[in-house]
User: Fold these one by one.
Assistant:
Number 1:
Amino acid sequence: MYEIIEFDSRYINLFYESFRSIVHEHRFYIITQAPSYECVKQWCERNVQEKSLHLIALGMERLIGSADIYSRQHEGASHIGVLAMFVIQEYRGHGVATQLMESIIGAARLRGFEKLELEVLASNRAAITLYHKFGFFEEGVRSKAKKVADGHYIDVILMAKNLDDCR
């Protein structure tokens, strides 16, 4: 059992542990080394202070998933939110990502975002399927965006969703 709630500073340690576990899988994030605890703590505290949109799935005193959106800061793009999300390995395939997506998209609409964008590794087929299910479409590809340990490359797919869509 889990619940979707707004992130606040009480959950920084749990967020760090979960985020670190995702990065160490070397399969879902462009980075291969987790940032330091202090760096993640500062990022979290800044997001809380700025009232950024950040929802988490909590279950059994663990942070099992996270979805956050930040606003593009350059002129003419503040209507665009950039989405990042993850679900820890043990909870994948149990509807957590679906519930996070439903919640974060609804919250993004309430915040006045008109478009969401995200980047996903081309090898992350489950995430791409989820994003398509919620009406995201592919806008482009950054080829050879990630070089993995054995020397081969993985593309990054750029996806977007216009929030005036019904889904």
Note: The CA atoms of residues 72 and 78 lie 5 Å apart.
Number 2:
Amino acid sequence: MTKRTPSIHLQKLEALHFRVIEKHPNCSLIEKDYRIKRSGFKGEQQLDYYLSFVPAKICEILPDIRLQANANLEHYFQMDTILKTTKYNVIFETKNHTGEVTYNTLTNQLTRINELGELEVFQDPIQQVKRQELQYKKLLQSMNPQTQQVPLIPLIVFTNPNCHIKIVPEGSRLPKNMIKAESVPSKLYELEKMYKQELIETKVLRQLTKKVLKSNTPYNPDILEKYHVKEQDLITGVFCLKCINVKMRWVKNSCWRCENCGFKNKNAFLKAVNEMILLYGNEITNKQFSNFLEIPSRVTSYRHITNLACSTIGFSKSRKYLLSLQNQYPILAQQ
């Protein structure tokens, strides 16, 4: 199984959530979107745990796939997880809701009363996954006509163990493609018994997987533009890896030191570098670098940025340095 990592969209949301000033008019919206996105990621990780019980030799599992529905239109569809075999395919749509959720089989509506006592209404997950099924099936057939004979099963998985699913009207049954995460292994076992005939060769399956991965286009917005955030709306500086909300200062020719607890680390600025790249992009000027990290000395800033840069663009004051994300300091969503 391809290891699931936080999407670039989630990483950008998290960086913005941590850095945007509280008085920004979109601060509450940013926090709401970040919480939803992070919750979804946690739910997908929970699904991955149960999928880990599936023998790797019988299937290929692809997380976070976003594909273009029509080559002539800028329209994409997203699937949380795809399980591919030579006998059948499965689309998993995860829901990480807590508390009691209600699904009305007459109105096809999913609702929940949140912690504040407010009614939340969600789009019909069954129709949502059916749309994914139709779009993905059409795309697979365009890649290889043999896939037309391979069954595609859409499943809605409620991943939070503290979620209770209530079905109304009274006497209605839970839809067959709506299950809890702990039921995933047994559901796949049922499918293995139901679909015994291999309909495509393993070689064809691997070729299709490569094509799907090649076509995968993660959602990667300009996060500052999306939420109308300007550079002056961002909190700058290097924050202590222990105190979190307290800034560190560079001690000349030495390391970064926390003003509160005294913690020292020469690489503490790398997390701030990651956040800067996620917010500004990977082409950074020395002035942007020194301002964001609050390095008073341009010489010190220059030494740091040149040590990190893969290459440069331009000359003199207009020169930009190409930076890449520092994997040793992942975003908080991975912790």
Note: The chain has a mean pLDDT of 91.
